[in-house]
Amino acid sequence: MTHGTERVLITGITGQDGGYLAEQLSNDGAEIHGLVRDGDEAASGLLQRLPQAQLHTGDLTDTEGMRDLLRVLKPSEVYNLAGISSVAQSWEQPTLTAEVTGVAVAVLLQTAWQLTESGNPVRFVQASSAEMFGNPQRSPQNESTPIAPVSPYGAAKAYAHHLVGVYRARGLHACSLILYNHESPRRPSSFVTRKITQAAARIAGGDTEQLALGNLDARRDWGWAPDYVDAMVRAARHAVPGDYVIATGVEHTVRDFVAAAFVAAGIDDWNQYVRVDPRFFRPVDAVEQIGDPSKAGQLLGWAPTVPFDEIVARMVRAENQPAE
Ligand code: GDP
Q: Does 319 qualify as catalytic in the annotation?
């Protein structure tokens, strides 16, 4: 099946995943539309990489504006990647988080369903998050793991995830991808991985300021971001819509990440360069998150392609190169 004529709308197109997704779909021949917020500074960078992308200025919480945009574009695929991106921010702005990460998805789903009903089928992909599992009792987690968020971010994602299921039951081709942490050189430095690779490169270059981190024993299932957007496209184009855990199934500690990053930067004994600072410990944190991607493997033929050490090495290497 070719999909060369797809018209896609990506919310959150200026983020890490949005950029990779837009590039993949554009290479596939799709017509790319993206929602950007007024004054989004990342928009010009995206347009440099992908001049053919058509950007629409708007806000997810503008119900009428979003309905109008969807009705005018009649996209065949909508990828909802927008939202408050950090757990920390969601504690500071819980109502904004509920509106952007939760309620706004209702408008997208309802409009997608109405378009579908009127003869313009829309396939919908929601970027869900492992954060909605909170502190799971069992590892690894899969699509049946109880949803029990421990942050406003997780609660808003949980609402959106449930609503995808509601509209799927009503007949919409709607998928929810439960994404575990996924990294790349484009990851913002507010995430621990990029914070570490930046510091490793800086210290390898002769800087002596130590890297201050929080809980080195926290464990995460870290994958390669372009693999995760590929899973989104596979889900959208699979005959039957569904929910999928997208993860590697392998976990590492923050300490493992530090060690791998310093080795990649040419430093074997990293201990002297790193200190633990209580400021970076979180009052509520999922200590361990690991996903079981078997369903995505079986139904979508998806598998992670980049092992942990290689993800870290690529990120460290990219620190010394101009931004891509
Ligand atoms: P998250 O899983 O989406 O919250 O992604 P992060 O990359 O922000 O955090 C991953 C894990 O690293 C969490 O368990 C954090 O508590 C832990 N961590 C330890 N030190 C730090 C730090 O200095 N910054 C951040 N962002 N996380 C840290």
A: no
